[in-house]
Amino acid sequence: MKLNQWFTVSCAAMALAACGGSQSSGNTAPPAASSANPTATTGEKVLRIGTNAEFAPFESLNEKQEIQGFDIDLLNEMAKVGHFKVEFKHTPWDGIFASLDNKDVDAVASAVTITDDRKKTMDFSEPYYKITQVVLIPPSKTVKNVDDLKKLPKVGVVSGQTGDLAAQKIFGATSPNIARFDTVTLLTKEVENGGVDAGISDSAVIANYIKNNTNKGFSMVQIPDFQEEYYGFAVRKGDTETLNLLNDSLKQVRESGKYAELENKYFAK
After folding, report:
1. DSSP per residue over 222-268, as a string?
2. Residues 137 and 219: beta-carbon distance below 8 Å
3. CB neighbours of 255 closer than 8 A, spacing ≥ 6?
4. Is there a contact between 4 and 161 (Cβ–Cβ < 8 Å)?
């Protein structure tokens, strides 16, 4: 996702998101929404999950304002095999890690890239998805490598996500060439409108955008300078009980074949 994410590409800070100063459009995050999962009444453990539902296909809001996506389905399957309940809370990205620290949620599932910097303040589950940062390119532009990217007057990123960190590594942390936005939706819209010349974000998210907007002629380029990243579920530092519960249930979902089904559902080409 989800700065501090690879280059720590999750905020100049996806350090914490999966954040940094914003040159955003000024739009605020929509009001918090929760999933349809009921509160547990059977004595099973309930995990309150913070997620920024603006990062399809991992988490987003449907027309009924219900949280949906790969992360959501995965955690619901994990809850079944792990015999616990999950309650999802839509949380703005720039406050999602604070909600974990403040014990408003028990874990964060929001396409959060595992980085060394983040590990200093939170613990992560075993990785559950691999991505890289890619460049979203409109049909009027040509980008094949970092040198081509450097020639563009304005490149958009989501503030605090690892794409922000990747851009900072290329242009410099305070470069006027970087335009920051609050969400991927705002970023892609600005690329569409020509407000920025290209955008940097997570590969699965950009691929999903292109798949759903085939008529616009957009493409994406993976640049070798952008390293592989891994998403994990974040928990408070030292919360081994929740960490073990997530890891054990994730392993069971993988072994059952259900993980592969979900991966095919959301990411099949």
Report:
1. E-TTSPEEEE--EEETT-HHHHHHHHHHHHHHHHHTHHHHHHHHHH-
2. yes
3. none
4. no
Residues belonging to the chain? 269
Please answer whether residues 12 and 117 qualify as being in contact, where contact means their C-beta atoms are separated by less than 8 angstroms.
no
Residue closest to 258 by CA, chosen among 70, 101, 89: 70
Confidence of residue 210 (pLDDT cuts 50, 70, 90): very high
Give the ranges where 126-172 is alpha helix by DSSP (H).
Answer: 146-150, 162-171
Q: Are 16 and 56 in contact (CB under 8 A)?
A: no
Give CA–CA dist 111/50, Å, rounded. 11
pLDDT given for residue 43 in this prediction: 72
Tokens of 142: 């040509």
DSSP result, 81-106:
HHTEEEEEEE--GGGHHHHHHTTS-S
User: Among positive and negative, which fits the CA dihedral 76, 78, 82, 84?
Assistant: negative
Record the pTM.
0.78
- Of the CA atoms within 13 Å of residue 132, those in its CB half-sphere come to 12
CB 10 within 8 Å of CB 133: no
- Return the residue matching tokens 């030292």: 238
Is the Cα dihedral 121, 251, 103, 30 positive or negative?
positive
DSSP code for 113: B
Three-class SS of 139-204: CCCCCCCHHHHHCCCCEEEECCCHHHHHHHHHHCCCCCCEEEECCHHHHHHHHHHCCCCEEEEEHH
Q: Which two tokens stand for residue 116?
A: 């060394």
Tokens standing for 212? 């759903």
231-262 pLDDT, tens digit per residue, is 999 999 999 999 999 999 999 999 999 999 99
